[in-house]
Model the fold of this input.
Amino acid sequence: MFDIILNNMRQIDPREIATNPIRLIGDQWMLVTAGKLGNFNMMTASWGCLGELWYKPVAFVFIRPPRYTFEFVEREDRLTLSFFDETYRQALQICGTKSGRDIDKVAETGLTPYETELGSVAFHEASLVLECRKLYADMLKKEHFLVPEIYQRSYSASELHKMFIVEIERAWTK
Ligand SMILES: Cc1cc2nc3c(=O)[nH]c(=O)nc-3n(C[C@H](O)[C@H](O)[C@H](O)COP(=O)(O)O)c2cc1C
Done:
């Protein structure tokens, strides 16, 4: 099942993802990409989770509604999570500080998008790509925070995130 090589990447079981997920998301960061080749957007995210839920390997992604990427994630059934080595830190900085509403992120970063097996968009430069399908989404709610400091620190000056729980349908590595 996992002898497939496509777009220069090898398919793996999501359980074989080698890097600690806290490091992978929190330190390495990821690009969340949604849309189709020709009409997509990507943004940097460093908050999220990888795990197991509803008998499936899943990721949790948190996106603030003002992000341009949010529009694509809302519209599409799928998204991808792309992880890069340190060489691409500057590209992730750009995708995390500028909006696709204002700049052409592909031109600015030099990243090369490709269409994935399931029709989403990911990047040739990524060392790990997760193709994901949306399963569940909900806005975080102020009244549900059990520790007020968390809300104060992260949301008193900016909007609450929408949480997306996505199934990891395919995982690809180099
Ligand atoms: C390191 C880092 C991590 C980020 N993590 C998130 C995140 O988890 N969720 C989120 O909504 N925005 C996050 N952002 C902010 C978005 O990446 C940023 O607002 C971006 O410019 C949105 O681009 P867009 O408008 O093209 O979608 C992060 C930014 C950086 C630099």
Remarks:
- Residues 29, 41, 43-47, 62-64, 67-69, 96-101, 161 surround flavin mononucleotide (CB under 6 Å).
